């Protein structure tokens, strides 16, 4: 199945801050987060150095992806942590697994 929209969660080096986002090009978006963390630090992810991908879901429909992002953003941290742990138990960096 081909997905062209993604909901993703990135974190900082110490896994203390989470950022939930949605995109149609996850590689480009991760690059933008990295650039901002190294340069202007204008975005939330840049300010807190959230550049490590720990979770993602693929969607065919952009409206479904946006709805899922909004749903996850309303969750408490504990529930977000459980979602990440069920997908990525060791909270490994997944940046290189996205092609």
Automatic annotation (TrEMBL):
UniProt keyword annotations, A-Z: Endonuclease, Hydrolase, Nuclease
PROSITE patterns tied to this protein: GIY_YIG (PS50164)
Domain GIY-YIG: 3-82
Gene Ontology molecular function: any one: endonuclease activity
InterPro entries assigned to the protein according to its UniProt record, in alphabetical order: GIY-YIG_endonuc, GIY-YIG_endonuc_sf, UPF0213_domain
Family (UniProt): Belongs to the UPF0213 family.
Name listed for the protein in its UniProt record: Endonuclease
